[in-house]
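To illustrate this point, we now present one chain and its tokenised fold:
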Amino acid sequence: MLLKVYPENPNSKEIHKVAKILQDGGLIIYPTDTLYAIGCDALNVRAVENICRIKGVNPQKSNLSIICYDLSNVSEYAKVSNAAFKLMKKHLPGPFTFILPTSNELPKIYKNRKEVGIRVPDNMIARELVNALGNPMLSMSLRDDEEQIEYTTDPELIHEKYSHQIDLVIDGGYGDTEASTIIDCTSDDFEIIRQGKGIL
């Protein structure tokens, strides 16, 4: 299913419809402030495993990122030092992924990793979905390096390609082509691991 949602002012009825799919363990493709991403309820282990299977990644070995509505509940899912919190507060919402040590609230599937990526994208569709869901969303960028760019930026082509693997594609307009900037905050010597769209 392809669902048009306007990013400036997402319709709450549509957002709740998508949140219900996520609550039921469904997978969606949705826009962020960078690339289109595939997402699910981050606390639903089976849904997380399904996304990892589609993306061909091992959840025990790959870095997993979650989308939060804002910084108010990040400490439930990650250990945030004062210095990391200040840095995040200054740059979020925005095109950044902050790598932090995991907390005990995340399911076992995250535990073996000891760290988790935290995103608060500057995109109201993504953030309102998390708000309506009541949990963070697991998020993996759609784009693979060898993939044709149209299939990761054009919602109709995304739907054409992935409709048999996921439950819904949100059409929030054309996606960006640049990924988020990744910052390792697992120690207080912050390090940019990948320079992307976000400028510190």
User: Anything to note?
Assistant: The chain has a mean pLDDT of 91. The longest strand covers residues 96-101. The chain is about 30% helix and 20% strand.
